[in-house]
């Protein structure tokens, strides 16, 4: 099991835990362990009235679990911009989403991640993402 002592280790693990073929159970316990208590996941929703949907980790899991049961989903980082200030970091993680790891992406986006380092490991505090559908 990877340690979470670097930004790369927690970010790469976050993407890996979400990725897999349709019907493959995700390791939600491990996913939960990446997030600080009270962390938020916030997709930007487009349309006539753009807004931010604020989700807890549990809300997010409930939202994607039925989708992953029937759809393959793979996501990986394509580039990153990071700034570390003391014990916190802000990372812009650009990514691609795919239905098959060898296929063309169906989505591209950017995660704005805020992380905290407690002198032992990194924790996700919040993630906001803006996909091409909501830009």
List key phrases describing it:
Nuclear Transport Factor 2, Chain: A; alpha+beta; 135 residues; globular; single chain
Structure description:
- The chain is an alpha+beta fold.
- The protein has a single domain, classed as Roll (Nuclear Transport Factor 2, Chain: A), CATH 3.10.450.
- The protein contains 3 helices and 6 strands, in the order ααββαββββ.
- The chain has helices at 7-18, 28-32, 57-70; strands at residues 35-45, 51-52, 74-85, 88-98, 107-117, 122-131.
- A 6-stranded mixed sheet has the order 2-1-6-5-4-3, with helices on one face.
- It is globular.
- The protein starts with 6 loop residues before the first helix and ends with a strand.
- The model has no long low-confidence stretch (mean pLDDT 94).
């Amino acid at each position: 099991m990877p340690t979470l002592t670097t930004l790369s280790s927690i970010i790469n693990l976050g993407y890996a835990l979400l990725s897999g073929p349709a019907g493959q159970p995700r390791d939600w316990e491990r996913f939960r362990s990446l997030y600080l208590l009270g962390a938020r996941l916030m997709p930007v929703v487009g349309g006539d009235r753009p807004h931010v949907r604020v989700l807890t980790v549990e809300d997010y899991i409930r939202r994607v679990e039925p989708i992953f049961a029937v759809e393959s989903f793979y996501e990986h980082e394509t580039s990153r911009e990071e700034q570390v200030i003391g014990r916190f970091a802000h990372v812009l993680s650009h990514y691609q989403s795919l239905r098959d790891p060898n296929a063309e992406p169906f989505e591209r986006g950017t995660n704005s991640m805020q992380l905290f380092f407690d002198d032992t490991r990194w924790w996700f505090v919040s993630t906001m993402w803006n996909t091409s559908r909501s830009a």
